[in-house]
Amino acid sequence: MSRFNMPATKKYIEKNHEGDVSFKLSPEMELYSMVCTSALQPKFYVPNTNDQLNKIKTAISRVDPLFVAKLAVYAREKMYLRTIPLVLTVELAKIYKGNDNLIRRLIKRVVQRADEITELLAYYVKANKKEPKVVKTEGNHVTYKTIHGLSNQMNKGIKDLFESGKFNEYQLAKYNRKTDIKLRDALFLSHPKPQNQEQKDLFNKLANDDLDIPYTWEVELSMAGEIRGDKREVWEKLIDSGFEGWIEVE
């Protein structure tokens, strides 16, 4: 009679989304699998983005916060994913109560492009269901504040990004787009302290929306589509220029 080698059970077996039998993953591996395979876009086996987000949020609540932070860094720095690390950061910020600056330090790792600052804030507003807040009323004109109630760690993390000098004028101007949340909004929100005169001038230019617009194919074509509506003419101009002065350099 066996005393130790008990009869096998099916506790490690479950059914996948298609109803077929599959191996049950640990919470950590389940989150890793979703992060590394999710583009947060509708797919035939996951009907909509909300389903994917809800599964990810549930998985985050079941694993150690440090694992989530490391996974976010891995997804950004090793897998070169952009959206999902920001989602992990915001969702972790909603539930993490530690005083070790984990979220602040994480933001410096997952934000690698200037436009990811505004993407991070946009998802924060969405994830926390923040409605625009009225800040000023003058006659019939009402001014709203889109971002409010930002967590202290999130705010400090964004402040660090500006103060670090990680993004120069070219990078800030390249991604200074006409979106609901702009880079100047992030600047006003975080109140970074310039580390030198050059940085002070840069912050002032961003605040005044006076950055020097870089001459790249991406910027020129974008302006042609939004303002002039003559993309063909711009393409011909860029080609005739001999690819000098407009090639994008990171």
How would you characterize the overall build of this protein?
The chain is mainly α. The protein has a domain of 96 residues. It contains twelve helices and four strands. It has a two-stranded antiparallel sheet with strand order 1-2. A hairpin with a 5-residue loop joins strand 1 and strand 2. The C terminus is likely disordered.
Strand order of the largest sheet: 1-2
Low-confidence stretches: 42-47, 246-250
Topology pattern, helix = H, strand = E: EEHHHHHHEEHHHHHH
Helix content: 40-55%
* DSSP summary: helix tally: 12
Largest sheet: 2 strands, antiparallel
Number of beta strands: 4
Strand content bin = 5-15%
Radius of gyration: 23 Å
State the assembly state of the protein chains: single chain
Arithmetic mean pLDDT = 81
Q: What is the 3D shape? A: globular
Terminal CA distance reads: 69 Å
Structural class: mainly alpha
Summary tags:
single chain; 250 residues; mainly alpha; two-stranded antiparallel sheet; 4 strands; globular; disordered C terminus
What layout of secondary structure does this protein have?
Elements: E1 13-15, E2 21-23, H1 27-37, H2 49-60, H3 65-77, H4 83-95, H5 102-110, H6 115-127, E3 133-138, E4 141-145, H7 152-163, H8 169-174, H9 183-190, H10 197-207, H11 217-228, H12 231-240
Antiparallel strand pairs: 1-2, 3-4
Short description:
The chain is mostly helical and 250 residues long. The protein contains 12 helices and 4 strands.
